[in-house]
Amino acid sequence: MAGIKGDAARPVELKAGAIGFVDALVIGLNSTSPAYSLAAAIGPVVALVGVYAPGVMVASFVPMLLIASAFYHLNRADQDCGTTFSWVTRAMGPWTGWLGGWAITMTGVLVVGSLADVAVTFGLLTFGLDGWAEHEVVRQTLTVLVILLMTALCVIGTELSARVQNVLILAQVACLLAFAVVALYRVHAGTGTLDSVRPSAEWLNPFGSGGALLTAALLLGVFIYWGWESAVNLTEEVTDSATAPGRAAVWSTVILLVTYVSVAFAVVAYAGTAFLAENAGEEEFVFALLAGEAMGGWDWVVLLAVSTSALASTQTTIIPASRTALSMARRRALPASFARIHPRYRTPDVSTWWVAAIAIGWYLVVKQISENALFDSLTALSLLIAFYYALTGVACAVYHRRRLTVSVRNLVLIGLGPVVGAALLAWLLVESVVDMADPANSYSGVSWFGLGPPLVIGIGIAVTGVVLMVWWRFVSPAFWSERPGVADAEPVRREEP
Q1: How far apart are CA 206 and CA 209, in angstroms?
Q2: What is the pTM (predicted TM-score) of this model?
Q3: Residue 45: what pLDDT?
Q4: Does residue 381 fall inside a structural domain?
Q5: For the purposes of burial, counting CB atoms within 10 Å of the CB of 190, is it exposed (0-12), middle (13-18) or buried (19 or more)?
């Protein structure tokens, strides 16, 4: 699809075939920030469900796989870098589609600053610069520089971004595996320094701890899988764009499942539930504590894993937000300037820099309020994630509604599966709202307008989105004349047995 005209008065488009399936897979994996996400979630999850933490990782995987199936089948019919925005607009109309696009864009704004902050902090700790890591001005300055650097890499080219991501994923996975192997070996040899527990297959049972605790743990579990759809946002730049991005998304969730369950087994077995529960409030720093216990002088390996994980995700998280903004602008759902594509690099430079600028502003403002306020803004992410994932699942069934009865395969994979995934996420969304309404459940522990800060942030983002949508409807009404309709049903027909 054409972007803004270049210097030679020719339409400038995203660079088709810039990366392949493996590159898209790596970007999808890195967008979830596996090491950082697992480090941040493992302590709180264990505090809730004990040794059944690996089971929670499995249960959280189910709705993710079902929604990944929706992304796959929607992308086969409509290869648009706006993904949820484009598909929901076609299936359910412009108002719902605009809100889906807004949710995706805002997730990037909320999380990029935090990811860069973690990358800087753990990078400094890796090299023994603890004093710098504790110095707010130094850390915030370096965080802003990291965001600017990662944004520049995104603008310079998708191929360069993919090469950087390939290096970062190798470093991250190697470090995680080294930690898991050492931890499990020491458990087996009886040389652990903590209250180690022998691993058991029973740990894979997510229902072992009870319903209420499981619900709270699942809210955390879904968050750590979020991000794999970045591969699909690159659909217009991937070779074999009709199938490769969707396959990358599905395989990303599967690889994440194996990674999370394996490392969760190692962490719980080595540290024991008491240690993890006591240090649940340390968030991602629990890996720093465990690294020193399990690996002695080699603790930098785990610190490096978390740093590279957050660094990679800082870059890849910008992709969905910038590509969604580009897609919205092309359809005149946002100002035309967001649709500009750099004539040399063939990437959406304006939307990419705008995402970075807003993310930096959000990070610096929230940081001035308090460290806990930043964590509260991350908690609000679960509302946006559940919303646009659930929306995509429903859109898949609606979009392909005329094809669902053609075969059992279509009914299950294109209809029932995505709808069940959407229902599970809608249920988690409601549970999140109920949980966040209580100020005591927030990091800050204070009341904003009688509610918890994360819920107020989530409501504020939703209201802002609605106001901007209504305002833009009157400024530029063209987009709102679009009517639901399938872009191309032929890919679905080819899949039928």
Answers
A1: 7
A2: 0.87
A3: 81
A4: yes
A5: exposed
How open is the CA angle 153-458-75, to the nearest 5 degrees? Answer: 50
- Number of domains observed in the structure of the chain: 1
Residue 485 forms part of a structural domain:
yes
Task: Answer whether residue 175 is part of any domain.
Answer: yes
Cα separation values, 395 from 171, 319, 322, 388, Å:
37, 22, 22, 10
Task: Provide the token pair at 81.
Answer: 């870098």
Q: Which residue's entry shows tokens 């088709």?
A: 16
Provide the domain limits for residue 174. Answer: 21-492
Alpha helices for 78-157 (secondary structure H): 84-92, 94-126, 130-134, 136-156
* Closest alpha carbon to 264 in 305, 203, 214, 338: 203
CB 409 within 8 A of CB 87: no
Distance of CA 144 to the CA centre of its chain: 20
Q: pLDDT averaged over the chain?
A: 83
Q: 291, 282 in Cβ contact below 8 A? A: no
Helix (H, G, I), strand (E, B) or coil at 279: coil
pLDDT digits (tens, 9 = 90+) for 235-245: 888 888 888 98
**pLDDT tens for each residue of 446-474:** 888 888 888 999 899 999 999 999 999 99
Comparing CA positions, the residue from 386, 285, 368, 206 lying closest to residue 41 is 285
- Distances in Å between the alpha carbon of 184 and those of 143, 192, 205, 332? 34, 9, 20, 54
| pLDDT, tens digit (0-9, with 9 covering 90-100), for 383-425 | 898 899 999 999 999 999 888 888 898 899 999 999 999 999 9
Cα distance between residue 314 and residue 321, in whole Å: 12
- Which 8-state DSSP code applies to residue 449? T
Q: What is the CATH number of the domain that holds 51?
A: 1.20.1740.10
Q: Give mean pLDDT, residues 83-111.
A: 92
Please name the residues in contact with 42: beta carbons below 8 A apart, sequence gap of 6 or more.
53, 263, 264, 267, 268, 276, 286
- How confident is the model over 292-337, as pLDDT tens digits? 666 666 667 777 878 888 888 888 888 889 999 999 999 999 999 9
DSSP, res 412: I
Number of helices (H), then strands (E), belonging to the chain: the values are 20, 0
**Quick check: is 16 in a domain?**
no
